[in-house]
Amino acid sequence: MEFSLFFFSSCSDSQDDRSSNSYRLLLDAAKFADERGFRAVWTPERHFNPFGGLFPNPSVVSAALAMITSRIRLRAGSVVSPLHHPIRIAEEWAVVDRLSGGRAEFAFASGWHSDDFVFYPERYEDRSAHMYEQIAQVQALWAGQSRKATNGAGREIEIRTYPRPVQNRLPLWITSNGNAETMKSAARLGASVLTNFIGQDAEELAGKIADYRETLESSGFPRGAGRIAVMLHTFVGDDLERVRRIVKAPFIDYLASSLTLLRKLAPSATPGATPGAAPGGIGLEEALRDPAVARKLLDFAFARYWQSAALLGTPDSCGELVRSLEEIGVDEIACLIDFHDDYETVMGGLEGLLRLKERFDPSPAPAAR
């Protein structure tokens, strides 16, 4: 099992949150991971909401990380490709690849929130189809192929993108929030998959991974060609109860910040869609209306994550989940560490995470490029 770091922190409108210190944890944790053999650093693409708001453009962030690291892979989790022109995607990430000496990777995602599509409103309904078209387009541009385009004078021209990347072939990832068909589609392309436990548990994921591997083979790829990375919220310490005290309130606050995003989505939700519900009939729609119900839902969510869907605990307690993920075919855990907003606390937790990592991935850091 390999381990990487994942970032998705919230931000605010306060003046205190507007300095470069907002990115201090990202930069210092990336250097820690780079020096200690972690596989990658993942950063997301988010727009128009404090939840994940530090990361509107993962290529810019990855370019900064390229300057302070020498080994670790620099990944976007994800690039919401329907929000972009494929030429810009190829150009920006080729720059990251050049700056990093060939360490750039990114997962394509189709997007989900209608507000994000102010860039290309017409793409929202068919966003998944747009994503798959763009995968082929970006791969071709990355490989140096030309593309027809219409210039400002209305003439059709042939263009190639520059600079040329270090890697001849773009490492391809696709993000799936538990959708089995998305994972099969990734397998048909020979792509790796970034997923999570937001809409699935380990047992459900096991079946999807088995189908993914079978689809890889039937599509002409080696069964082990693609990788499965699972994002898990992570804090590892020495004492289980102390870890619980450290993480519970910040974790619930972090989950609550995601409800503001869902609240914005609720008025435009698909008619007839069934809202998620916790035991006892606590539904998402009800939680968005009633703060008391929201608190019950958040407490339930924390209990679920604590028990079986996050690396929150000690190396011993978290090791059980790591072993179970290994058994079902997960290759990498992408550890989301910045749900807690205290710099010293999170950096201290990296030492515990390193001890957990060394139990399952004792290999030294790869050679610097």
Structure description:
This protein has 369 residues and is of the alpha/beta class. It has a single domain, classed as Luciferase-like domain (TIM Barrel, Alpha-Beta Barrel). It is 44% helix and 17% strand. The chain contains eleven helices and 13 strands. The protein has helices at residues 24-35, 58-66, 86-100, 127-142, 180-188, 202-218, 240-265, 284-289, 291-309, 315-328, 343-360; strands at residues 2-6, 40-43, 73-80, 104-109, 147-150, 156-159, 172-175, 192-196, 228-236, 277-278, 282-283, 311-313, 332-336. An eight-stranded parallel β-barrel has the order 1-2-3-4-7-8-9-13, surrounded by seven helices. The chain has a two-stranded antiparallel ribbon with strand order 5-6. α5 packs parallel to α6 (202-218). The longest helix has 26 residues, at 240-265. The protein is globular, with a radius of gyration of 20 Å.
List keywords for this structure.
alpha/beta; two-stranded antiparallel ribbon; TIM Barrel; 44% helix; 369 residues; 11 helices
* CATH uppermost class: Alpha Beta
Number of strands: 13
Number of helices: 11
- Backbone CA Rg: 20 Å
Which of globular, elongated, flat, extended, rod-shaped describes the shape?
Answer: globular
User: What name does the CATH topology carry?
Assistant: TIM Barrel
Give me the CATH architecture, please.
Alpha-Beta Barrel
Helix-strand string: EHEHEHEHEEEHEHEHEEHHEHEH
Work out the oligomeric state of the chains in this entry.
single chain
What is the count of distinct domains? 1
Strand content: 15-25%
Q: Which blocks of ≥5 consecutive residues have pLDDT under 50?
A: 264-282
